[in-house]
Design goal:
DNA-binding; CheY-like_superfamily; DNA binding; DNA-binding NtrC family response regulator; single chain
Length: 64
């Protein structure tokens, strides 16, 4: 990733340009505010819980 872009910035960029794409941002160092991510993105704190990752993907990436 470019030095001026982190995962939150990338999620915003994707949300603006491709709003149909669901993004998962994971970090153990930061916790974005609710308005920092687009509606099509979810944040997961590290260490990741396998069940939460699967639940998030199932909930938001289901074929519709």
């Amino acid at each position: 990733m470019p030095r001026d872009m982190d995962g939150v910035a990338l999620a915003k960029y994707v949300g603006e340009h491709w709003p149909h794409i669901f993004v998962v941002v994971a970090s153990g160092a930061i916790k974005p505010a609710p308005d920092d991510l687009p509606d099509t993105a979810r944040f997961l704190s590290k260490p990741l819980d396998q069940r939460l990752v699967l639940e998030t993907l199932r909930e938001h990436c289901a074929v519709k």
